[in-house]
Amino acid sequence: MNQPKPAPHKLPDDHVQLLEQIDAVVAKYEAKPSNLIMILHAAQGIYGYLPYVVQKFIADKMHLSVSEVSGVVTFYSFFSTKPKGKHTILVCMGTACYVRGGKKLLDGIQKHLHVDVDETTEDGKFTLNKARCIGACGLAPAMMIDDTVYKAVNPNKLESILSKY
Ligand code: FES
User: Fold this and answer.
1) 10-residue mean pLDDT series, the chain (165 residues)
2) Exposure winner among 28, 77, 92, 141, fewest CB in 10 A?
3) Strand, helix or coil at 3?
4) Does residue 3 form part of some domain?
């Protein structure tokens, strides 16, 4: 199995304090391997994501290999190894949205923000993700930014929508 590699992300200023909080979580769960998923969940809640340094920290505390921890992190899609942007854009690629221009919308956002799907803009402002359906099929194509749903969006409206953030 390949060893996970450290990513070149800048560590948050409160990195040490965050690790102390994660340490307390590991202790609370008695570092039992059967509690690894719960510990990772809590760690992601504290740190925001699970970069290599956090995975290694948890692995050391739990006397596991980094590969064992990273295997769990990469298996479950709700764990993220990359920092999230301040705002999350979710573009619907469900059938209704797809046939009514969802792909054009996604392309427009990628071009406008210079970002790929599942990536974060360089300024850390937006993370771009795709969704299957966000429950606004009647007014497709739809997208969400954080908790706000935008319906019947066409690429020409993008600039004014994104400029609100
Ligand atoms: S398919 Fe896009 S909102 Fe349902």
Assistant:
1) 59 91 96 95 93 97 97 89 90 96 96 94 93 94 95 92 95
2) 77
3) coil
4) no
106 lines ligand 1 (CB under 6 A): no
Here the CATH number for the domain that contains residue 127 is: 3.40.30.10
64: in domain? yes
The reported pTM is: 0.68
CB 133 less than 6 A from any atom of ligand 1: yes
Distance, CA of 159 to CA of 80 (rounded, Å): 28
8 A C-beta contact, residue 127 and residue 89: yes
> How many residues comprise the chain?
165
Q: How many other CB atoms are there within 10 angstroms of residue 132's CB atom?
A: 10
